[in-house]
Amino acid sequence: MGAYRTVLLVLCAFFCITMRTQGQVEVLVHLESDARVEELLSVLPVAPREKRLLSKSWNIWLLSFTKANAAQLLKTCRASPRVKLAQVNHRIQFRSYVPNDPLFPEQWNLLNTGQFQGLPGADVKAVPAWELANGGVTASGDSVVIAVVDQGADLLHPDIPFWKNRHEIKNNGIDDDQNGYIDDYDGWHAGNHSGTIPPNHHGSLVCGIAAATCNNATGICGVAWGARILPVALSDYGDEAQVVEAYSYIYDLRKQYAVTGGAEGAFIVAVNSSFGIDYGHPEDYPIWCAMYDSLGNVGILSVVSTANLNINIDTTSDIPSSCPSEYLIVVTNTTRFDRRSPTAAYGAETVDLGAPGTGILSTGQFGIYTTSSGTSMAAPHVSAAVALLYSGACRGFIDAYKANPSHGALIVKDYVLQGADILSDLDGRTVANGRLNLHSSVNMLFNDLCVGCFTISAAVVPTTCNSDHDGVIILFPLHGAPPYTYLWSDGSSNSYLTGLRRGKYWVKVTDSTGCSKYRYFEMTSRNTLMLTLIADSSVHGANGSVRALVSGGLPPYRYEWNDSLHSTTPAIESLSPGTYAVTVTDSNGCQISDSVVVADRVISKIFSAENMPIHVWVNQDSGTMRLSLPHGQPSGVWLSDISGKMLLPAFQAAGTVQVDLSSLAPGIYLLKVLHRGNVIVRKVFWY
To answer: CB neighbours (10 Å) of residue 476?
Structure first.
């Protein structure tokens, strides 16, 4: 009887109670194992409308009455010697972790239910992840810290939990903890070499996204709302020297924590940075890039926002996105529709993954809450993900990380990327092919490294083409206690899945002892086709063009355009403004489609070749362009992208001029030449 009472008490403890419709009463009755329900019905003051056996093993019945006095019914039931337990049948409310922060319903990035006309589910899966970890404390008791390098932060904001150096006395002009930084109670300002953190709106936004306090009936929730924020400030016009000082401070604090066994310093696991140099090349910034390895050696992952430009970092380069450090995670910006923002950079080799960064609600300066957009809003989601993984890992992993922090940091990075949800807009354009998924990453690390009852091997057959449904996964559990049971993400219960398309799949495997492990799979394609369209705006007429750049699959490729000629070539020209689409088919029959807009661009002073001749030669092999004017010399030369942004500064030229194009991404550029007070414009195609 005690066991049954425990079951019922647990049910009552874990479910919320609601009332039945007035006048209707349902009673749960637990009879003795050999009792018949008719014995009880014969003594009840009113006959039930319905009776139903719920459990034959436990002899539990549901009795339904249209009109009855519930208290009198229960009193009669409990008085019967053949009744073990009796109670009213309560409705249950299924529970999930929904915070009480008043602005949480507006945080589509954490829980996208379709608010603001977004795509339901296009979020980082924060709510289920919080059932496993909150970013606060590791299994060995370390308080997790995220360093944010920005222009400052609102230290008085009621919703941001800032780290404090308790071994330092504020504003006494003394380095109390002898860490080399005077008065660093709140953090460090690398711009003026002091512990004074200036208020700043952008930095406050980043801090709130990463770790705003959750379930405090105030404002919003941060991704890792149990973690602490260490603010490190740069001046408004920061330079590389300040970046060195900022990163060095973070490095010193983390190293101090390790040396003192946690007595001093800070358990910093990630540093978030939202600054860089557009089109910068790593060879010009060797010290900057090398610092990411130094931070990684003490166990810190560096999370950075990529450029807010629609460019391919693989071909154009960017600092710090192009730095070669393994300890760097480069983040681009996704929208509430699970699309890459058209103002955010990408790169299959240099940009690691996407995270929400468009219209993100967060904490602003002066205690306010506001929305902002950009890759700098995306990066703190990933910095916070790193914190979540450490707080959700078992003691064994944390101990191993402390013994070898550089190796442990790379393991955490791997799980951040592995857990990403594949998105069509990021597939082939980022390392992880997708957008951050907190729940998958936390779950994968714990189940792979912290549950040791058995192992799972698998055979995976990729799909033939991007859009095919012929992938296969077959599982082989080892070293457990068979038989095994299987529960896949689609509800299947076999040891295999067939007919799969590209995407993420997970399975829960349980052996006969009740031990369970999860395993996650990314179904890829054997012949992944990638397509990039480069459009040249139409300037004063039907003279636009589009070129398709294709890689992967099996060449040669077949092209089908939607232009008036139904062209079958890689490039189409003489286009009027409009939308142009192409379907590319490789020799395996695999297809990929995309479209692009040819804009209508008007330039005020353009002179024809007849009136103002200019000769241009582009050498694709040497990466150079030469130009000359038959009559006289140009007084200035500019090279800009199709939007008009200048890429090479104006310079004086005489006779034949040579321009280095080798650093430019494939695309259409505008060459502007100033001659005798007139501007001559020519299109230059570079691939």
So the answer is: 12
